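Work through this protein:
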Amino acid sequence: MGADMTPHEFIEKNVHDELRKLKFKESICFTVSRDAVDYYRQRSMFSKSVVLDVLAWSKKRAKEMSR
């Protein structure tokens, strides 16, 4: 198959896919998924799992951008 994803690619893809499932506009999905990678890079600790924290942050950010 294809090459393995880096952690940044994994986060970007999974955030984008999750936001699309939640019916956010493509432009918001794209922007928030890129922002999620920056959020991941800036954090040194996460309260839950990395993926759950990043997804929770991303959903909140997408809702704010949808207003």
In short: The mean pLDDT is 93. The two ends are 40 Å apart (CA to CA). The CA atoms of residues 43 and 59 lie 17 Å apart.
